[in-house]
Amino acid sequence: MRVAPKQFDVNNLRYTIRSAVEKDAKQLSEVRLQIDGETENFDREKGEAFMDESGFKQLIKEDTEASNNLFLVAEENDKIVGFLRGAGNKLKRTSHKVEFGIGILQAYWGFGIGKNLLKEFIHWADSNGIKKISLHVLETNEKAIKLYQNHGFEVEGVLKKDKLLSDGNYYSTIVMGRLNG
């Protein structure tokens, strides 16, 4: 699906949140690779499960055509600085829910981009009959956990010792969900 673009001005940074389009594919490939190298909050290390421009083009096409998928980008001066991708499925028993993930370039943390991407996504989900939104977040990502809780998400479970990080320790993944109706 697609949503109308929306502008934000936070801490003297003006950015737009809009639906991803095919021409974003090359930038999205580069941004995802960079984000994977800037944080350990994702499953991937830099370069793992690399998705190239054609892979993103296909993903954007599928997400645009699917009624329960949404791919948002945050853009500042024609540069993609973050994204949120939410995806559901066509299985009857689980078609009422979507799962999502957010990625923001580290240089753009602190400008409300994650919060505004999340708010736009929740609005879309609530407006389109999505009954449940779910996510996985690393236990050490306290800012994200607080953000999700402030927007109605609750902890549904913990996947213990789920990820091995660069310090050689295992960390848990928190499973969170938000119900609508």
Structure in words:
The protein has 181 residues and is of the alpha+beta class. The chain has a domain at 6-130: Aminopeptidase, CATH 3.40.630. Helix content is 28%, strand content 36%. It has four helices and eight strands. The chain has helices spanning 25-38, 53-65, 113-127, 142-150; strands at 6-10, 13-19, 69-76, 79-87, 97-104, 132-138, 154-164, 170-179. Strand 1 and strand 2 form a beta hairpin. Helix 1 (25-38) packs across helix 2. The longest helix has 15 residues, at 113-127. The relative contact order is 0.16. The mean pLDDT is 95.
CATH class of the domain at 6-130: Alpha Beta
Low-pLDDT regions: none
Write down the secondary-structure element order. EEHHEEEHEHEE
- Percent strand equals 35-45%
Spatial separation of the terminal alpha carbons: 21 Å
Q: In DSSP terms, counting alpha (H) and pi (I) runs of 4 or more, how many helices?
A: 4
What is the architecture of the domain at 6-130 at the second tier of CATH? 3-Layer(aba) Sandwich
Q: Kindly report the CATH topology of the domain at 6-130.
A: Aminopeptidase
Could you provide a short overview of the structure?
Helix 1 packs across helix 2. The chain is 28% helix and 36% strand. By secondary structure, the chain is an alpha+beta fold.
Helix-strand layout with pairing:
Elements: E1 6-10, E2 13-19, H1 25-38, H2 53-65, E3 69-76, E4 79-87, E5 97-104, H3 113-127, E6 132-138, H4 142-150, E7 154-164, E8 170-179
Parallel strand pairs: 5-6
Antiparallel strand pairs: 1-2, 2-3, 3-4, 4-5, 6-8, 7-8
Helix pairs in contact: 1-2
